[in-house]
Design brief:
Elements lengths: L1 E6 L4 E6 L5 E9 L5 H5 L7 E5 L3 E2 L18 E3 L2 E2 L12 H8 L2 E4 L3 H11 L2 E6 L5 H9 L10 H4 L5 E2 L5 E2 L4 E2 L6 E7 L4 H9 L2 E7 L4 H9 L5 E4 L10 H12 L4 E4 L1 H9 L5 E16 L6 E12 L8 E7 L5 E6 L4 E4 L14 H9 L1
Helix pairs in contact: 7-8, 8-9
Length: 373
């Protein structure tokens, strides 16, 4: 299946398709993880985006039900150098191509992913269009020019839960190849902006029963649960898109802060806490996406370096140090990766301590939230 691709900078390519057919428009980013393509593809934070994998061979372990980070794939498409249809892994249940076809997601192979990565690195993340139906550059440009940018679309409405539910299990056990049973003695509300299942697993594993609520849930109900002792804190999840456009969420968090509800945020949740405190986020040139980002942890007597998983295009400003202690910094570019707000039971991190895909250096952060509440 022939696929034609047009980037916003005018670059035009032809490649081979292995997923769904059709035409899709989204923002192109690259991910440097060596493993875990299924977790990346099913991460709701990638809604509205195409992901270029720098790992040259993708598909060799197939896809299975246990490694899903949500109930479906939310991204627009994946771009890989070489796709492997014949997977080989004892946990594999079907091929990646079969999965993408079912999900309506474009799979694009036999394209120079090294060139694409270098282009994004030098020119920044940009919009693109890919199609198995339209191969005329001018027609593709019309589609691209008429589609809103990712910063204009509220993808939270698409990825959030339909209704409230309680997460059922703990962390994945590598020995039993199953999820640990739930053993909790605290309860929290999780505002679902596109939460990854493994974040819920790790919160539960640390001892907190997770009541997951849709993003539109009235904050007054959550505050009432806290004041009545039904819950001990609130978790603000990861999610897609530009945090600055989520005005109603900003107001919810302000009310939670006024009610002095203990809070912990990851990725988008981290950014939303900054905005709610009056410190707007800014967009990085090409973002941080991968499983090999070094972060300095300043907590404790001696600073330590952790290798972390990352997936974000937006960041909190340096000025946040006026109201918060910086607990983590990215060693690639010096951007802030974690803060603890002064005189409040509120903290957050930009990276992904749930380690899905790995590494697992930062899993201790879930226990910190449990200890705080």
């Amino acid at each position: 299946m022939k696929i034609s691709i047009l980037l916003a900078n005018g670059d035009f390519f032809e490649a081979r398709g292995f997923g769904a057919e059709g035409t899709s428009v989204g923002e192109i980013v690259f991910n440097t993880s060596m493993t875990g393509y299924q977790e990346i593809i099913t991460d709701p934070s990638y809604a509205g985006q195409f992901v270029v994998f720098t790992m040259p061979e993708i598909g060799n372990v197939g896809v299975n039900a246990d490694d899903m980070e949500s109930n479906r794939a939310w991204l627009k498409g994946v771009l890989v150098r070489e796709y492997v249809e014949s997977f080989s892994n004892f946990r594999g249940e079907r091929s990646l191509g079969e999965f993408l076809k079912e999900q309506g997601v474009l799979g694009i192979s036999e394209i120079d992913t090294r060139y694409l990565t270098k282009t994004i690195r030098t020119q920044g993340a940009m919009m693109m269009v890919a199609s198995s139906e339209i191969h005329n550059k001018d027609e593709l440009k019309k589609i691209l020019d008429s589609t809103p940018g990712i910063q204009e679309i509220d993808y939270i409405k698409e990825v959030t839960a339909d209704k409230e539910y309680i997460h059922p299990n703990g962390a994945w056990n590598d020995k039993t190849l199953s999820y640990n049973p739930k053993k909790t003695d605290k309860r929290i509300v999780v505002y679902d902006f596109g939460v990854k299942r493994n974040i819920l697993n790790e919160l539960t594993e640390a001892g907190m029963e997770c009541i997951v609520v849709p993003a539109h849930t009235p904050v007054e109900k959550v505050i009432e649960k806290y004041e009545n002792g039904e819950i001990q804190g609130v978790f603000l999840s990861n999610g897609p898109g530009d945090p600055l456009i989520l005005k109603d969420v900003h107001e919810k968090i302000k009310k939670l802060l006024e009610a002095k509800v203990p809070m912990f945020g990851i990725c988008l949740g981290h950014q939303l806490l900054s905005i709610a405190h009056g410190y707007p986020t800014f967009k990085l040139k090409f973002g941080h996406h991968g499983g090999n980002h070094p972060v300095k942890n300043f907590i404790g007597k001696y600073p330590e370096v952790e290798i972390t998983a990352q997936n974000h295009n937006y960041n909190v400003p340096e000025e946040i140090e006026e109201i918060a202690e910086v607990t983590h910094k990215n060693l690639f570019d010096g951007t802030i990766e974690g803060v603890k707000y002064k005189n409040k039971k509120v903290f957050s991190v930009q990276h992904h301590p749930e380690a899905s895909p790995g590494p697992r250096d930062a899993k201790y952060i879930f226990k910190q939230f449990y200890d705080m509440i």
